[in-house]
## 1
Amino acid sequence: MSDTPLSSIGSERTGEERSIRVRILDRDYPLKVAPADEAYTLHLAKYVDGRLRKIRGGIPHQPDLTHAVIGALELAEELFVARAEIDQLRARVQVEADEMTKRLDSALARPDSGDGQSGAPPNAEAE
């Protein structure tokens, strides 16, 4: 089995790659990763292994490929739910930012805010 580059890890691909092995469901997988991504990739592999072992424990008589497919579907669902939540939060932040911008524009457009200050810098009238 040749080393498979993990193109989704890290933001940029450089010529520097390190060969590592990850173990998932009692099988070793060689991967090539940027040196800065090695620890993170090992962490991800440990997480995936744990998830698949939990699935395997629930349905032990199924082949590991079935465990892997179920695990992939579970992780994909989590990703889609997380993306939907992020989209909702972005929309809420945008609405609030738009409302704040309108209030700020309105406050800045008034010549006198009613507090006795004209909007001029302090001591500007004293000169």
## 2
Amino acid sequence: MLHFTSDQWVQWLGVYFWPMLRILALITTAPILSEKSIPKRVKVGLGIIITIIVAPSLPPVDIPIFSANAVWVALQQVMIGVAVGFTMQLAFAAVRTAGELIGLQMGLSFATFVDPGSHLNMPVLARIIDLLAMLLFLSFNGHLWLISMLVDTFHTLPIGENPVNSNAFLALTRAAGLIFLNGLMLALPIITLLLTVNLALGLLNRMAPQLSIFVIGFPLTLTVGILLMSLLMPLIAPFCEHLFGEIFNLLGKVRTSS
């Protein structure tokens, strides 16, 4: 009968414990995987499965789990996983922002409902574009790229060896502005045209005050907005592909510079 000492058990547990912290931190913050509609047991089970697959190929970690240094190392793993997940969330935040801006100009800002993922009120148009971005993310195998990117961090940012580079997190925060700028560029053509329609309605109201602009204005802007959205839909797929590519390139640069 095999007998194991307590030190052997702790060493074996550390092989899986440290990677699982980073992987679970990613799952709880990454797009789609962090949706509250996914049961917590499924998330934990997915994290355990990925850990079992990844952990044997990682270099050994000589850090006792029940030591004072383990607290800082555990915090490092959580920070890395959360940083990767939140960085990927920037792309979806940019898409949602574009949807909110378009919906505001179309007069659909009042049409909101509770988002099951965040439990926050979200405009209908923003949610539709967000769901479309999620489908495109899965069709581009973005979830696989994201997991692969996280696995690569175990080699570029080994557990307990290299400290987390503060400059890397600073680069991520600076890049957030560029990502949201892309979202604004997506919505800018429709916003400009709808603003032109509203200006035309304002001039029409000044020239013909007897016309009820409030009666014809909302159906007109809504109709024009829907027509413009139908023209925009074919462009969302290449836009999201470019946006996701920028995020992964950003993560790659941060990973290699850390």
## 3
Amino acid sequence: MGTTRKSTTGTSTGKKDGANTAAIPDSATVQPKTLGRKRDASRNKAILDATLEVLAEIGFDSMTMDLVAARAGAGKATLYRRWPSKGEVVRDALIGMSRNSIEVDHLPDTGNLRDDLLAVMKPPSLEYSERKLRVLAGLGSFSTQHRKLYDEALTGIFEPWIRINTELMQRAIERRELPAGADIPLACEIIISLTTFRTSTQLKKFDRASYAALLDHFVLPGLAIERRNPNPS
């Protein structure tokens, strides 16, 4: 039976400009994103949960701060003190939704990279998976009219996952499961690119089965190949 170990790898990813499905964090350092103000974490969670509920029901374009405040049972002044605009609260709600679906503190240590990567994903309930798809489908103009916030959301969503995957792949190199020259950054980009395309463009579920197929057909075979010198000479 596998064990878990505390993650110690530092943050090592940022973002690139590009289309919605190509806004992939790069190797620049990213500071961990704080969701709202630090005070009253339970109130913040209630507001972010309410934001996701409203997004899933009516979408970003019809959503208002009044509706979020009413759903959370919070005063509008409380909401605006934490998030001055609905774009900012949506950004933080999306980041929180993603972080709830992966294990970011205690990494699996099964002795096998494939099993480790799969174990990072928390098995979601059917209700949670369906709501997540409705949220993504309801983003509307958020990605185009609030591009900076959208890119910040993507960075916040994917940075922890890339950091975790990088550490797990480095472990696999240390135990000689992967070659020393395995292209870890490229493998992480493949995971993020195809995940983003599936969930944001195709609006399909990204579950354990689809992740296993991605690993088996693209990621793990690619990691088994030594990285080549890009210089054509």
